[in-house]
TrEMBL record:
Protein localization: Cell membrane
Membrane-traversing stretches: 26-45, 57-87, 136-160, 167-188, 220-241, 253-269, 315-338
GO cellular component, one term: plasma membrane
UniProt KW Nucleotidyltransferase keyword: no
Protein name per UniProt: Permease
Organism encoding this protein: Blastococcus saxobsidens
Family stated for the protein in its record: Belongs to the UPF0718 family.
Topology in the lipid bilayer: Multi-pass membrane protein
UniProt KW keywords: Cell membrane, Membrane, Transmembrane, Transmembrane helix
Domain of life: Bacteria
């Protein structure tokens, strides 16, 4: 697949050209984040309002999940914003081999040192493809960056203090997903399936500091909204859903995997925070929770929407289902060996 050559960007003059600054307007996600933070404040200010046994259990799980995950979410957002603002796009083009077969593992491994949240990984991958990077390599980076970066690994270790192999398993399975999908695209992907992302105009005059602050603010509010939704769901599952039903699902190897994979797709929790939600679902096996952790960063409802908008619906309807199948298979294989 060939695209028209683009003007060379000088890193010292206009490295931020083409970066789409997030909209500063208040969105429904921002309002959701603020509104759901209110119960956390009330939990500490007016504990007498949470005296019922069921309500006390629900609020305890919800607050614990959100507060444990929040520091890792903040660190991840700041790192992602720093990369967006200060790492020139030409860096990736220089660092990756020209051959897709070799570029895929290099791009996949780069996710461990150049972290980014799921939301940021899609436009970054689009920018790489637009600048001539092989699509297979860009897609491998898209899948690995939010899944194997140091913040995610440390968060998983903290969330599972008694199960150190959980973090190891997550790293290995997630990297395998990125490599397999990259190689599959290199072997079978068709240029007609992938719509080339267009350069976004109108932000070339923004300074690096402005890009950093604006991106961090946007990503924190956006990812924070999904975090609190995940906390709400985890707390509700632990309190409202009958324990007998949870035990029945958890005892079934097939059902538990399907349910956890479905939850990962629907909840769309930030990868820096999802380990704490998974750790709270103690009825489920470690392997089924590993499926949750591997699937979430590579395919969920918001990623499918972002991929469709960036690369076109013909890409999303093929890439997302294939990624889901590969992610479940890799998580099961690694879980069977390590857990």
């Amino acid at each position: 697949m060939h695209s028209a050559p683009e003007p060379v960007l000088r890193d010292d003059v206009d490295a931020t050209a083409g970066i789409d600054l997030p909209d500063r307007r208040i969105t429904s996600g921002d309002l959701l984040f603020v509104l759901i933070l209110i119960p956390i404040g009330l939990y500490f200010l007016r504990p007498d309002w949470f005296q019922g046994a069921a309500l006390q259990a629900w609020s305890t799980v919800f607050v614990a999940v959100c507060l444990q995950a929040l520091p890792f979410l903040v660190i991840g957002v700041l790192l992602s914003a720093a990369i967006t603002a200060f790492v020139p796009a030409s860096f990736f083009e220089r660092a990756l081999p020209a051959r897709p077969g070799l570029a895929v593992p290099v791009a996949g491994a780069a996710g461990a040192v150049l972290p980014g949240c799921e939301c940021a990984s899609v436009p970054v991958a689009g920018s790489l493809i637009r600048r001539g990077v092989a699509p297979a390599a860009a897609l491998a980076f898209l899948l690995s960056a939010p899944a194997i970066n140091p913040i995610v690994v440390v968060a998983t270790v903290v969330a599972f203090p008694d199960e150190p192999m959980m973090a190891v398993g997550r790293f290995i399975a997630s990297l395998l997903v990125a490599l397999v999908m990259g190689w599959l695209w290199a072997a079978f992907g068709q240029p007609s399936w992938l719509r080339l992302p267009q350069r976004v105009a109108g932000s070339s005059g923004a300074g690096r500091g402005t890009i950093f602050v604006t991106t961090a603010q946007h990503d924190f509010a956006h990812a924070g909204g999904f975090l609190v939704v995940g906390g709400l769901t985890a707390a509700t599952l632990n309190v409202v859903v009958p324990r007998a039903w949870l035990d029945t699902v958890a005892e079934s190897a097939v059902l538990s995997v399907l349910v956890m994979a479905l939850l990962a797709v629907i909840l769309a929790i930030c990868s820096e925070a999802d380990a704490f939600v998974a750790a709270s679902l103690t009825s489920f096996s470690l392997t089924s929770r590993l499926v949750f952790l591997v699937v979430g960063p590579v395919v969920d409802v918001k990623l499918i929407a972002l991929q469709s908008g960036t690369f076109g619906p013909r890409f999303a309807v093929r890439f997302a289902p294939a990624t889901l199948v590969v992610a479940v298979c890799c998580a099961l294989a690694v879980g069977w060996v390590l857990l």
